[in-house]
């Protein structure tokens, strides 16, 4: 971690606290008193976290420490960012209070860190508790375990902005629930930090003359996104140690718009009305805009959807900074919140007064349960009333805060975890032998940790109209029909004739009759076989009088679990994404297990790379394919309600449609990420040699980082045009992963690039691409990037490729060139064409059902 001035700043602050000195620091928060309490709860001495931040013990702030206990977590989830403060907790069996002496008249940020695990054999699944401060209820009947499980996160951070208290004493009280026997409360870390005045009155959406004065409310941070940009860690925030997340998991529909980054020489100048505490520069130098085609832009809304608690008022803060336009009326758009116009004809340049000037706008909206929906929709759409130069919209950052209700409450219910697949039987990771609990440590693996962010399980990316495409050389495995990896107690109940999955599938998965399938495959005629694997055969078939599909039929003689089959189908049929091969339906009549998929015309990525290549893909095409596949995997990991691990990422599982759009297939072999009781999924090792994550292989430890490893191998396959394993080569060359890493170490990576494309790759693009591919192959999963980061870096490489002078130079092109720039910065050309129009028209009706299923 870079030791930048902020870290220094915090280090200085912390030491001040240790010495219990309230130093008066000028030019920070206009010379007011500063508080910063950063407590590692249960710790006996100070310690620094992975970012170099110092956490001090909490004992002296507890009014009755003897009534509490402290303990170490019994297991460490690999996705924890740091041991401090997560691996130790303070445990409260009865109501307990922390007291802090703070400066009155100032707002304070309160962050509570929870890592649900086992502490002294106490299972955090038993912990239900409330947390109150200064008359406000921050949490009530809170279960960190359930929350973490539902969000598939290992740890939970809850952040609140407490209004100035009249007195200089802040009491933070933990109250175990009385509704449950054995209930207790726990906390791993507490931060209490002074914050400057960054809230003002905000207009109420839907009421022309109403506003709320946000200054007088305590708030909970629900979402904080660096729109169009990357994750920003607390160390890179502008002084408040806030974490900013990537917005892509929350995008709704198939139209992602286009992301861009400001050129290096566009300097971001905060005006006097925007303090740097509002948001760091990193938020303002990246943005998401609509797309290059104005006709298309007029037909869709750039939309984000968030899961929220109903019966609360929300403050929605939009951050803008224009670095592509410089004049008024070049880019004018409407802002909608929950389908109501929050602001018509927004013009960032008109607000800010020029380019490179940050500006933010707040709006308040009340969400009641009239709609029966716990979602907040934010949408942007061009406003053409005054004939702006471009029909487009832009957003740089977005924050959503929940404001306290009339009773001073901020607590919502625990989220409801969706039914999880049964856990494997003999998980090696049960608690240590001393524990006879027989339960497994309560941890979840997750990439997106944060303020209890609800990763939009609702944001199904729709592709609409079925593509007619081919699945060839479908290899090996498919659904774990044997249930070998997770079968546990459930017996395979064969149920002839009747179909059961359709009822529980919520109608998302189409049910085919066996007659239809037989008709479509000419009674399983072998001439239609396009693939054979351990599970049975894949046929090219026809449904609905001519639509080409791929039909996979499980070998009727094999032992299969109907129940697993159904569970799997229900899971898969809910996944819709432009870069995933869609499951159209299934048939389970007569003990048959048949799945019907989209058919992909251009086959597998592998067959276009080598092995008598049908065609030689250009470097640009290859990069586009990698980006598409990365997007599909990113969606599997973060876009669905549960993390889904593919487990068999390889070039034969990346299929290409007739427009060369990459789609990930065979995620039927996948299983959902670890649930709360598991630190990771441990299963029989599956996957393909040459792509296997060494960590997974050694320890049977499956995380989504295993997919990242395999994808790294695919990236080198694409770069070098050679198989992942080639036994005919010399020993050090057999494994592509090892060979590539070796060449990277020696600095000879360029020498192994496929000669066909060598001349096409720009140096910067190559460097970027190689760097991310090498990182994917890190031996230790923790050191591998997330799929989101991989995606971002591939897009970045593409920008270098499209403009040899690098993305910065591209972004410099000003107003009139803005659209050329869009095309060059373009990240999702194909999706614009392939998905957008469909998402908007024919598909809308179908997918609004998916997006908004009743009773969810
Ligand atoms: C954080 O800031 C440092 C220094 O400014 C920079 O090198 C680093 O890349 C940043 N990290 C992220 C994730 O933005
Ligand atoms: C950025 O630099 C280029 C030349 O390097 C210059 O033409 C352009 O005006 C600069 N932009 C700004 C905002 O300074
Ligand atoms: C924009 O999209 C429309 C509809 O998809 C298409 O007809 C038109 O050719 C596109 N325009 C450009 C400039 O690509
Ligand atoms: C929301 O408020 C309404 C009216 O007060 C109430 O009937 C409803 O039960 C509340 N819903 C929830 C989930 O609290
Ligand atoms: C907004 O509109 C969309 C469809 O146009 C609908 O699915 C969604 O439920 C609406 N959202 C709210 C909060 O009313
Ligand atoms: C965009 O959203 C607004 C508000 O929900 C809606 O009225 C409008 O029809 C939407 N436009 C398109 C093209 O979907
Ligand atoms: C565009 O903005 C104008 C001016 O604020 C507003 O009156 C108009 O309704 C907006 N147009 C649309 C289509 O929302
Ligand atoms: C927030 O809580 C305070 C203190 O309980 C209360 O005075 C205020 O009315 C609450 N805000 C709202 C919107 O009810
Ligand atoms: C507490 O939360 C649990 C789990 O979400 C829920 O089942 C229970 O009904 C809640 N209890 C109360 C008193 O709200
Ligand atoms: C976790 O373990 C507890 C105790 O064994 C059990 O009640 C609970 O159902 C398990 N949860 C999951 C998701 O397996
Ligand atoms: C499925 O079961 C069959 C027969 O019981 C066995 O041969 C095969 O190896 C199993 N497949 C998997 C993936 O475990
Ligand atoms: C890719 O698909 C297109 C459209 O279906 C087809 O014309 C082309 O021949 C295919 N190319 C290969 C190499 O299969």
TrEMBL record:
GO terms under cellular component? plasma membrane
Compartments where found: Cell membrane
Keyword Repressor found: no
CDD domains named in the record: STKc_IRAK
The record's SUPFAM superfamilies line, in alphabetical order, gives:
Protein kinase-like (PK-like)
Comp. bias (Low complexity): 483-503
Q: Where is the Protein kinase domain?
A: 524-797
The residues that the entry says bind ATP are 552
**GO molecular function of the protein, one example?**
ATP binding
Segment forming the signal sequence: 1-23
Q: What class of enzyme is it?
A: transferase
Region Disordered, residue ranges: 409-435, 483-505
Membrane topology, as annotated: Single-pass type I membrane protein
Tell me the keywords, alphabetical order. ATP-binding, Cell membrane, Fertilization, Glycoprotein, Kinase, Membrane, Nucleotide-binding, Serine/threonine-protein kinase, Signal, Transferase, Transmembrane, Transmembrane helix
Q: What is this protein called?
A: non-specific serine/threonine protein kinase
Species lineage: Eukaryota, Viridiplantae, Streptophyta, Embryophyta, Tracheophyta
């Amino acid at each position: 971690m870079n030791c930048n001035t902020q870290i220094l700043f915090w280090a200085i602050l912390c030491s001040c606290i240790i010495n219990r000195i309230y130093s008066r620091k000028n030019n920070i928060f206009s010379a007011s008193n500063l508080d910063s309490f950063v407590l590692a709860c249960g710790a006996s001495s100070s310690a620094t976290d992975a970012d170099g931040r110092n956490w001090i013990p909490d004992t002296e702030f507890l009014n009755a420490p003897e009534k509490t206990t402290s303990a170490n977590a019994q297991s460490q989830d690999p996705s924890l960012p740091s041991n401090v403060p997560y691996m130790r907790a303070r445990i409260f069996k009865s109501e307990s209070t922390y007291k802090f002496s703070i400066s009155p008249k100032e707002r304070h940020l309160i962050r509570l860190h929870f890592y649900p695990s086992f502490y002294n054999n106490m299972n955090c699944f038993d912990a239900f508790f409330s947390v109150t401060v200064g008359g406000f209820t921050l949490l009530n009947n809170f279960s960190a375990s359930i929350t973490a499980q539902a969000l598939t996160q290992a740890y939970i951070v809850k952040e609140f902005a407490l209004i100035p208290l009249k007195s200089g004493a802040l009491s933070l009280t933990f109250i175990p629930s009385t509704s449950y026997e054995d209930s207790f409360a726990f906390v791993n870390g507490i931060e209490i930090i002074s914050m400057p005045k960054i809230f003002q009155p905000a207009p109420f959406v839907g009421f022309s003359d109403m506003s709320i004065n946000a200054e007088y409310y305590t708030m909970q941070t629900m979402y904080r996104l660096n729109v169009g940009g990357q994750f920003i860690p607390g160390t890179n925030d502008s002084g408040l140690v806030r974490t900013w997340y990537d917005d892509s998991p929350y995008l709704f529909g198939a139209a992602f718009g286009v992301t861009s980054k400001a050129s290096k020489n566009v300097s971001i100048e905060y005006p006097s009305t925007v303090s740097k505490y509002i948001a760091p520069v990193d938020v303002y130098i990246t943005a998401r805009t609509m797309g290059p085609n104005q006709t298309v832009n007029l037909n869709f809304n750039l939309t984000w959807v968030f899961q929220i608690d109903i019966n609360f008022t929300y403050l929605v803060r939009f951050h803008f900074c224009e670095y592509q336009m410089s004049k008024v009326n070049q880019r004018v758009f409407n802002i909608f919140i929950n389908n109501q116009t929050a602001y018509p004809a927004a013009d960032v340049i008109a607000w800010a007064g020029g380019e490179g000037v940050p500006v933010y706008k707040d709006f308040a909206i009340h969400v009641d349960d009239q709609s029966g929906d716990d979602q907040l929709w934010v949408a942007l759409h061009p406003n053409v009333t005054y004939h702006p130069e471009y029909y487009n919209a832009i957003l740089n950052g977005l924050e959503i805060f929940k404001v306290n209700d009339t009773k001073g409450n901020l607590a919502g219910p625990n989220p409801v975890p969706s039914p999880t697949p049964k856990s494997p039987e003999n998980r090696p990771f049960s608690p240590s032998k001393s524990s006879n609990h027989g339960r497994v440590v309560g941890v979840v693996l997750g990439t997106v940790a944060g303020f209890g962010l609800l990763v939009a399980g609702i944001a199904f990316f729709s592709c609409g109209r079925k593509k007619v495409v081919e699945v060839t050389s479908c290899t090996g495995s498919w659904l774990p029909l044997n249930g070998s990896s997770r079968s546990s107690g459930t017996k395979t109940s064969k149920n002839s004739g009747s179909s059961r999955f359709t009822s529980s599938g919520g109608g998302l998965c189409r049910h085919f009759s066996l007659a239809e399938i037989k008709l479509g495959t000419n009674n399983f005629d072998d001439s239609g076989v396009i693939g054979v694997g351990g599970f049975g055969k894949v046929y090219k078939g026809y449904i609905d009088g001519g639509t080409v599909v791929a039909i996979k039929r499980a070998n009727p003689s094999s032992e299969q679990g109907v129940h697993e089959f159904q569970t799997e189908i229900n899971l898969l049929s809910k996944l819709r994404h432009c870069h995933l091969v869609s499951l159209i339906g299934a048939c389970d009549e007569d003990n048959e297990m048949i799945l019907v998929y989209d058919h992909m015309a251009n086959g597998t990525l592998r067959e276009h790379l080598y092995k008598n290549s049908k065609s030689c893909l250009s470097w640009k095409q290859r990069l586009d394919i990698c980006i598409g596949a990365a997007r599909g995997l990113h969606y599997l990991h973060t876009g669905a309600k549960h993390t889904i691990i593919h487990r068999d990422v390889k070039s034969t599982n990346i299929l290409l449609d007739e427009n060369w759009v990459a789609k990930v297939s065979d995620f039927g072999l996948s299983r959902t990420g670890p649930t709360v009781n598991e630190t990771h999924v441990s299963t029989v090792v599956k996957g393909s040699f040459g792509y296997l994550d060494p960590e997974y292989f050694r320890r049977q430890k499956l995380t989504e980082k295993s997919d990242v490893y395999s994808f790294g191998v695919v990236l080198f396959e694409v770069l070098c045009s050679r198989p992942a394993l080639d036994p005919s080569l010399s020993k050090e060359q057999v494994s592509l992963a090892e060979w590539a890493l070796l060449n990277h170490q020696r600095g000879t990576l360029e020498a192994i690039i496929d000669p066909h494309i060598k001349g096409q790759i720009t140096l910067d693009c190559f460097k970027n691409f190689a760097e991310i591919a090498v990182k994917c192959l890190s031996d230790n999963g923790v050191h591998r990037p997330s799929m989101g980061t991989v995606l971002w870096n591939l897009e970045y490489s593409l920008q270098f490729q499209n403009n040899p002078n690098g993305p910065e130079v591209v972004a410099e092109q000003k107003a009139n060139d803005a659209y050329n720039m869009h095309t060059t910065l373009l990240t999702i050309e194909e999706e614009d064409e392939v998905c957008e129009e469909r998402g908007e028209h024919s598909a809308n009706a179908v997918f609004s059902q998916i997006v908004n299923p009743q009773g969810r």
